[in-house]
């Protein structure tokens, strides 16, 4: 199976599942809240302390409102991690539920887990063999300079940050 985020700033977001053996594909989590950008009233994306804006050819600049974008699969293949680009949250969903075409959308959605705050807006996700997920950051104060390759957030999915549970790989001032 392959999984693709269906990103949009104006239409419904979701996850596209592709059966590589048959070539068949189908959509899951269609317009599900976990695939959508956070409302602009609660989150305004920024890069290096400056507003992250779309600049349409036919209009004025506006804050980015892109939904599901970042994607990574767990080391054991049981969970698909994803996040909207314009959001501080990241989520996971059971891959067996995504792959089962007989399940209703509600049953698939019941396997979605809110994995918590990813430390700012970002879309770069990767997992390692030990089950940790790394999240690339872009919401940084200008004084920190260009965003590093990773926020350094390295934790096992499903565990909430707490003392000793999240490690910062970059200096915070």
Describe the protein in words:
InterPro entries: 6-blade_b-propeller_TolB-like, MRJP/yellow-related. Residues 129-143 have a biased composition (Basic and acidic residues). It comes from Micromonospora olivasterospora. The chain has 173 residues and is mainly β. It has a single domain (2-155), classed as Neuraminidase (6 Propeller). The chain contains 2 helices and 14 strands. The protein has helices spanning 95-99, 105-109, and strands spanning 2-6, 14-18, 25-28, 46-47, 50-51, 53-54, 62-63, 68-73, 79-84, 89-94, 113-117, 124-127, 133-136, 154-155. The strands form 5 sheets. Strands 8-9-10-11 form a 4-stranded antiparallel sheet. Strands 1-2-3 form a 3-stranded antiparallel sheet, with no helix packed on it. Strands 12-13-14 form a 3-stranded antiparallel sheet, with no helix packed on it. Strand 2 (14-18) and strand 3 (25-28) form a beta hairpin.
Task: Describe what is shown at a glance.
With 173 residues, the protein is mostly beta strands. It has 2 helices and 14 strands, in the order E-E-E-E-E-E-E-E-E-E-H-H-E-E-E-E.
Keywords:
4-stranded antiparallel beta sheet, single chain, mainly beta, 173 residues, 32% strand, Neuraminidase, 3-stranded antiparallel beta sheet
């Amino acid at each position: 199976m392959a999984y693709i985020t269906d990103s949009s700033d104006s239409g419904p977001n979701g996850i596209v599942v592709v059966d590589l053996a048959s070539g068949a594909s189908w959509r899951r989590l269609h317009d599900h809240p976990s695939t959508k950008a956070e409302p602009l009233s609660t989150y305004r994306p920024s890069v290096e302390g400056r507003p992250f804006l779309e600049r349409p050819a036919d209009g004025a600049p506006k804050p980015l409102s892109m939904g599901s974008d970042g994607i990574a699969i767990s080391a054991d293949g049981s969970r698909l991690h994803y996040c909207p680009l314009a959001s501080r949250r990241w989520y996971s969903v059971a891959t067996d539920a995504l792959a089962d075409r007989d399940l209703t959308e509600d049953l698939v959605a019941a396997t979605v887990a809110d994995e918590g705050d990813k430390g700012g807006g970002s879309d770069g996700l990767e997992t390692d063999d030990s089950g940790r997920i790394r999240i690339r950051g872009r919401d940084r104060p200008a004084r920190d300079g260009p965003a590093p390759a990773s926020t350094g957030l390295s934790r096992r999915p499903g565990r909430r940050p707490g003392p000793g549970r999240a490690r910062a790989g970059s200096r915070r001032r």
